[in-house]
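queue> pop job 88
queue> type: inverse folding (structure -> sequence)
queue> payload:
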């Protein structure tokens, strides 16, 4: 039986000798493969026609972490803490999200991925949590901490799909972000929160698998609940592949 094909979004990195490189953090690839999926990179710079052709062959999409999203896309002014904006990446991922939602393609968002999903469905972000949200915890535990450093607990709604996957209503997570959800998109449901109330996970109801988390489970493979999250995502993609 073929493995479900999981498309993983990518980033563009400048290079001294060539125009740029299309890159992906290996941890995403390994997490998907360990869960039973066949990972494939979704390159940037493709036309909508090519993206549509690629999407037709995918069983699931993983929206990865990375640089910030253009503040103009959520109606915000430029901010000095916003960096690594790639307009092409924003456009590619918003296009893929729209198709995944409308076509029922299972998707999982991680960190930037959660923020992208919220924006794509009509929500907004804090361009920088520390500057714009008084009383918040520290959320940007990088680059001076290990990627698997457990920064704070997350409370998960017991009736949510996520709680069923993780097997618990509270988990310890890493925290590698300086942005976060301000206004939640109308179609999304908040299903997890940090101790300061920041949104840590969302779900899209009535979708085969529409889920996103603010933390980075790909770095927490030593923890069974995080492995279970990738396994649930890949299982949903496999169910789609068998239809």
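queue> result:
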């Amino acid at each position: 039986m073929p493995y479900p094909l999981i498309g993983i979004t990518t980033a563009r990195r400048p290079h001294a000798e060539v125009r740029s490189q299309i890159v992906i953090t290996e941890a995403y690839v390994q997490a998907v493969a360990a869960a039973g999926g066949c990972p494939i990179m979704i390159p940037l710079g493709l036309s909508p026609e090519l993206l549509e052709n690629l999407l037709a062959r995918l069983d699931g999409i993983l929206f990865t972490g990375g640089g910030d999203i253009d503040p103009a896309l959520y109606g915000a002014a430029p901010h000095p803490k916003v960096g690594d904006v790639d307009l092409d990446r924003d456009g590619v991922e918003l296009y893929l999200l729209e198709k995944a939602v409308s076509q029922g393609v299972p998707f999982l968002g991680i960190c930037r991925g959660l923020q992208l999903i919220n924006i794509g469905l009509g929500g907004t972000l804090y361009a920088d949590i520390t500057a714009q949200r008084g009383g918040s915890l520290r959320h940007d535990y990088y680059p001076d901490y290990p990627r698997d450093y457990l920064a704070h607990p997350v409370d998960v709604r017991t009736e949510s799909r996520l709680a069923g996957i993780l097997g618990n209503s509270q988990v310890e997570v890493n925290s590698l972000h300086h942005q976060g959800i301000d206004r939640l998109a109308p179609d999304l449901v908040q299903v997890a929160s940090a101790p300061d109330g920041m949104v840590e996970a969302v779900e899209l109801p009535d979708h085969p698998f529409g889920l996103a988390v603010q933390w980075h489970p790909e770095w927490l493979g030593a923890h069974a609940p995080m492995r279970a999250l990738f396994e649930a995502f890949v299982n949903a993609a496999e169910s789609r592949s068998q239809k």
